[in-house]
Amino acid sequence: xxxxxxxxxxxxxxxxxxxxxxxxxxxxxxxxxxxxxxxxxxxxxxxxxxxxxxxxxxxxxxxxxxxxxxxxxxxxxxxxxxxxxxxxxxxxxxxxxxxxxxxxxxxxxxxxxxxxxxxxxxxxxxxxxxxxxxxxxxxxxxxxxxxxxxxxxxxxxxxxxxxxxxxxxxxxxxxxxxxxxxxxxxxxxxxxxxxxxxxxxxxxxxxxxxxxxxxxxxxxxxxxxxxxxxxxx
Length: 233
Prior knowledge:
Strand content: 15-25%
Order of helices and strands: EHEHHEHEEEEHH
Shape: globular
Helix content: 25-40%
CATH class: Alpha Beta
Number of domains: 1
Mean pLDDT: 86
Strand order of the largest sheet: 2-1-3-4-5-6-7
Distance between the termini: 22 Å
Number of strands: 7
Low-confidence stretches: 225-233
CATH architecture: Alpha-Beta Complex
Number of helices: 6
Largest sheet: 7 strands, mixed
Radius of gyration: 18 Å
CATH topology: Maf protein
């Protein structure tokens, strides 16, 4: 079985792939196939958006496979995966996650990616949130990262998992790691923002890390197995 991550975000793929590989599972991204697809996110819940991403990406992938993705070019990265793009061995993994800030009544929440505009750089978004909380006392700056994860299996059955991490909003953008809102999410047990953690530390305690580990457990327990891609020569 191959697991396709339904995202155009290279940060997510870089974060999740090692966790799957450590479990002996093959995870590829849309970028590995030379593809880009933006699923709609019209639900008002993280779980609903994750399901929508998985379903729409699965239909998109099958349409690309039926059109002969990579058929005419052995140099195209997509050609390497061509024989694996069938309805019988590709499961689509999708997540929806976001930052919920208590002092902002749970915002930006499911609209985290749309906050201040989808194309606005995250450093600008992070500073925008800091500005909104400029006069909020320390004990009221509490926040949560929430992740809902869906794996749409080839037979259209679903596996679902979720994760949450609690912390607070920092007063400054701090740290050069991670992505998104990580530089302003302060995690008290480590006395650091998520952007200051190593990949291993973040995967161990983050909302997405918890959800991914739960999902891997479900996949392995369900005995869906793994169909590995050819090794690079």
